[in-house]
Design a protein that fits this description.
The chain is of the alpha/beta class and about 290 residues long. Helix content is about 35%, strand content about 20%. It has two domains: about 10-60, no CATH class; about 65-195 and about 255-280, 3-Layer(aba) Sandwich (Rossmann fold). Helix 6 (about 175-185) links the parallel strand 6 (about 165-170) and strand 7 (about 190-195).
């Protein structure tokens, strides 16, 4: 699988690089550093050395990962290689394959009018089930399914029964409810926010008079795209909106990566994972 080869080794293999959280087993002691959990102070070692010592922990060797995929109407938009939701499905497949390779458990919740969920289990057959639930939503299959909003979707990985682990949220984040849900998720999990967007959301070419329909509300507006001032204002507004969105996402303390439907998303994702893994291996604070 070419995509998997390009990002191979960036999630699996080094368990300490998977999560920001500590593991459950005690490891060696070391000198206390500012920000360390005081509950891990080794008092006998502290008394022996005269300096405050803490236990490091050994990272758990089984990860429970959740994909939370936004399948709302705005995610069905796309003017380049594929729609934003199709891009989300490909990201789930690539990251899910890496996670499952080492025996980790993966589950999925799809938010939207044709949502669904798959509880976490291990194995590549499980990954096929995860991809299938996203694919059904992208093809509007399962119209008898109840709509799942952001709060309901995030309630599954945040339930008391869910193990602390990794949550990957894939959305265009046009619904502001996602920001609050990411903050809640960060209290329990390591969180990656994957922002998907389309080039026409940031820049509009001159294609004459066009009627636009809001995918979420159905509202329509007619615009003369040949007006250069309008196109310039559109770009400036879109740039400000995207910058504000990224700032709000980062304020949740989630890791954030932006992918576009018209670019090599694998290269961007691989670079993000590589940087993230180096930072975690170096023990960088958040």
């Amino acid at each position: 699988m070419p995509v998997t080869r390009r990002i191979s080794g960036l999630l699996q293999g080094d368990y300490s690089g998977l999560l920001h959280r500590a593991g459950s087993e005690l490891g060696d002691t070391r000198k206390y550093l500012e920000g360390d959990d005081v509950r891990r102070i080794d008092w006998p070692a502290t008394a022996r050395t005269g300096e405050t010592q803490v236990h490091d922990t050994i990272a758990d060797h089984e990860l429970e990962a959740w994909f939370v995929v936004d399948a709302s109407a705005s995610m069905r938009f796309g003017t380049a290689q594929f729609t934003k939701l199709e891009l989300a499905e490909q990201v789930v497949g690539a990251l899910g394959h890496l996670i499952c390779q080492t025996g980790n458990r993966v589950g999925c919740v799809v938010a939207g009018p044709h949502g669904g969920h798959v509880m976490p289990r291990a194995g590549l057959d499980q990954l096929a089930s995860v991809i299938a639930v996203v694919d059904r939503a992208s093809r509007d299959v399962g119209k008898d399914q109840a709509s799942i909003d952001a709060g309901h979707a995030m309630s599954m990985p945040l339930s008391p029964a869910a193990r602390r682990g990794l949550v990957v949220v894939i959305s265009d984040f046009l619904d502001s409810e996602w920001i609050a849900e990411l903050k809640r998720a960060r209290q329990k999990h390591d969180v990656i926010a994957v922002v998907v967007s389309d080039p026409r959301e940031h820049d509009m070419p001159n294609v004459g008079i066009v009627e636009f329909v809001d995918a979420e509300t159905g509202a329509t507006v007619v615009v003369d795209t040949s007006d250069s001032e309008w196109r310039s204002a559109f770009r400036e507004t879109a740039t400000r909106r995207q910058s504000d969105l990224l700032d709000r996402l980062r304020s949740t303390r989630a890791d954030v990566v932006q992918l576009n439907t018209d670019s090599d998303w694998v290269q961007v994702l691989a670079g993000f994972l590589r940087t993230r893994k180096r930072r975690l291996a170096a023990g960088a604070g958040r």
